Amino acid sequence: xxxxxxxxxxxxxxxxxxxxxxxxxxxxxxxxxxxxxxxxxxxxxxxxxxxxxxxxxxxxxxxxxxxxxxxxxxxxxxxxxxxxxxxxxxxxxxxxxxxxxxxxxxxxxxxxxxxxxxxxxxxxxxxxxxxxxxxxxxxxxxxxxxxxxxxxxxxxxxxxxxxxxxxxxxxxxxxxxxxxxxxxxxxxxxxxxxxxxxxxxxxxxxxxxxxxxxxxxxxxxxxxxxxxxxxxxxxxxxxxxxxxxxxxxxxxxxxxxxxxxxxxxxxxxxxxxxxxxxxxxxxxxxxxxxxxxxxxxxxxxxxxxxxxxxxxxxxxxxxxxxxxxxxxxxxxxxxxxxxxxxxxxxxxxxxxxxxxxxxxxxxxxxxxxxxxxxxxxxxxxxxxxxxxxxxxxxxxxxxxxxxxxxxxxxxxxxxxxxxxxxxxxxxxxxxxxxxxxxxxxxxxxxxxxxxxxxxxxxxxxxxxxxxxxxxxxxxxxxxxxxxxxxxxxxxxxxxxxxxxxxxxxxxxxxxxxxxxxxxxxxx
Length: 523
Known about the structure:
Blueprint: H1 3-41, H2 45-53, H3 55-82, H4 84-97, H5 99-120, H6 127-137, H7 140-156, H8 160-164, H9 166-180, H10 187-208, H11 219-223, H12 225-256, H13 263-298, H14 302-329, H15 331-338, H16 346-361, H17 363-378, H18 383-407, H19 409-435, H20 444-469, H21 476-500, H22 504-522
Helix pairs in contact: 1-9, 1-13, 1-14, 2-6, 2-13, 3-4, 3-7, 3-12, 3-13, 4-7, 5-6, 5-7, 6-10, 7-10, 9-10, 12-13, 12-18, 13-14, 13-16, 13-17, 14-16, 14-17, 14-20, 15-16, 15-21, 16-19, 17-19, 18-19, 20-21
């Protein structure tokens, strides 16, 4: 690895570390949010109504966040490169324009809830419960759109960690609302708690972005309304694409509603818990990579853009491979932990564990797809990634429909794995063909060392868990201790193996960590 590559890798890893810390706390609190629902209501009709009812607001809200990060943030980077006041003004204008859909959704949600519920409810879904969740949850669509704009602007200003905490405030407010609600066993309380959390999230971001408000009424800000129109025009295609993609993801929950009662909750909770492990690292790292790639392109640095993507690729795989091995090897005890309150039969545990393992196997592709496509957004090309997402959506839905009848929930998970893997390979091929050559593709030694490290970590996970499981008392707490100890041992084994095999990023990481420890103890 060259000195330049080392510097770029460090410039990605260091800010990513701060976001990763924040995202780890966020992931835990989000998992606790869903676990609270499962523990109070069980994996039954009410939980099904909750997970299906928030599917559209949550998935479409996630699409808005993706639009903000992938399209709006590069625009802000270009605007700030020319004039910082212009970026301030455009953010404020977009924020206030998005208050309109918030008002519209609030006024119409009572009528839309019934229509949407009857469209998406399967035979296993209680329609009345679903309507009760949807009525307060639908207005969060507008709140999510406004939050996406503020988050994109703040990320462009490199305030990554502060933005990452927004979801913590959302989930913490949800948990408090549902626990303190006098009638928390009513389905409508879940929708109201979700609305309260989204409102607090928007308030947090507005507080962080408050200095830009004064630029809204400046002469320069007023003059930039025309430029804002061009920005909205450039977001139409990716917005439609990402919203369709979100609805496609929500469609998986709708399909699960045609299976047994509790299938929607099991699919949603298991998928969130599994992907949360990857999101802790991928979202932070991809945010930094997008920001740096956008700035490099704005400054005309094509070679630097290639280096940023290559180093981001290496760092992501070094993080995601041991996580994937961990979940696949320990899928059964992880399933017992997630659904501790449910009395599963042995066959049900095995089937649910297979679903979780399939989602885990998709983690590398899950992280790499947005990394590759960020190179197109950095250049202002929204057509190529939009077409790519549409192809992924069509492939995923086709595989879902083909596999659901024969494999049930496992079919949905396997369809997700196959579609994401093929999509990641195509996205990497597009980058090589149209943007820049990624040298990491040709580094066979890196992939060999990665496979060896993953196998070593997997063996360590299993050996340590088997040993510790016999020492701790039976029950949920005992399984938790065994899983945590084996996870730590496996991660240490992976780092040691990769370091001994000469992976420079991990050596630098260990040196940086030792430096931080020495500095802390010296103080």
